[in-house]
Amino acid sequence: MMKNEYAIQLNNISKKYQDGEQENLVLNNISLKVKPGEFVAIVGPSGCGKSTFLSISGALLSPTDGSVIIGDTELCKKESRKLTKIRREKIGFIFQNHYLLPYLTSEEQLQLVIDLNKKNKKLDMNAKEMLDDLGLSDCANKYPDKMSGGEKQRVAIARAFMNNPDVILADEPTASLDGVRGRQVVEMIKKEVIKHNKAAIMVTHDERVLDLVDVVYRLENGVLKREDNY
Question: How confident is the model at residue 171 (pLDDT cuts 50, 70, 90)?
Answer without folding.
Answer: very high
